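Page 37, continued from 36.
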């Protein structure tokens, strides 16, 4: 069992910070589904884990047939869990792939809802800005993005919110998670989508984030919200950890 798979076990505790964040995300997914009913919609989840933020919501709904979704996750065991949960849900694709690789989306249509949960705290600040700038290329006009990020010092969320605004998104909500440093942001794309590049990278996970610790045991691990502890600066990371393929295990 990988570190990241064990990390998912924190969901079993309904009082954990991770569970509280999950409930906020799921509430936002359910609210968006209510707002868009009854039209067909497409969902894209980056670094989806076992997919519970989307799949557990869909399992409670009678209109699941109008939803198609692609859940992108590199860990094959977590993908297997997601496929098990999605059994019987037509239109749900669980794609075992590196979500940071733009090539993973080359053959997939743009989405009405993009989930970027547990990502922005595990990549360099430069990659956070770059990823947000690239998001419109994955979206249809008017698409919604749900994202998460810790407010642990140094709190990057003011800049994250500004970067969304600078790239054509209107903030719908920003929700600090109770008894936690986690937060959930919601934003709608209000400018025309951009052309998509079919190759290149959106982001690369930092050493110490999520399962990357398994590649270098001496580096810091992920916190209870699944976000990397320092170092965050990519220049420092490259100096400490120059050759490891940090995206091999999410």
């Amino acid at each position: 069992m990988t570190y990241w798979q064990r990390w998912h076990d924190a969901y079993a505790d309904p009082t954990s910070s991770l569970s509280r964040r999950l409930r906020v995300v799921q509430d936002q997914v359910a609210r968006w589904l209510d707002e868009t009913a009854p039209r067909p919609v497409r969902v894209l989840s980056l670094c989806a884990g076992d997919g519970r933020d989307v799949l557990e919501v869909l399992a409670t709904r009678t209109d699941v047939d109008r939803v198609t979704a692609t859940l992108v996750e590199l860990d094959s065991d977590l993908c297997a869990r997601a496929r098990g949960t999605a059994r019987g849900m037509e239109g749900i694709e669980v794609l075992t792939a590196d979500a940071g690789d733009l090539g993973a989306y080359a053959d997939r249509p743009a989405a009405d809802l993009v989930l970027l949960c547990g990502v922005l705290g595990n990549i360099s600040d430069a990659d956070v800005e770059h990823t947000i700038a690239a998001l419109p290329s994955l979206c249809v006009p008017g698409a919604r993005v749900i994202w998460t990020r810790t407010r642990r010092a140094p709190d990057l969320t003011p800049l994250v919110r500004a970067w969304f605004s600078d790239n054509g998104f209107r903030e719908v909500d920003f929700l600090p998670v109770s008894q936690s440093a986690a937060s959930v942001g919601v934003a709608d794309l209000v400018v025309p989508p951009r052309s998509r590049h079919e190759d290149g990278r959106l982001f690369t996970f930092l050493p110490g984030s999520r399962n990357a610790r398994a590649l270098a045991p001496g580096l810091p691990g992920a916190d209870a919200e699944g976000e990397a502890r320092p170092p965050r600066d990519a220049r420092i990371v490259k100096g400490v950890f120059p050759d490891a393929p940090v995206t091999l295990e999410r």
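The chain has one domain: 3-189. Flag for discussion at group meeting. Residues 23 and 53 are 8 Å apart (CA to CA).
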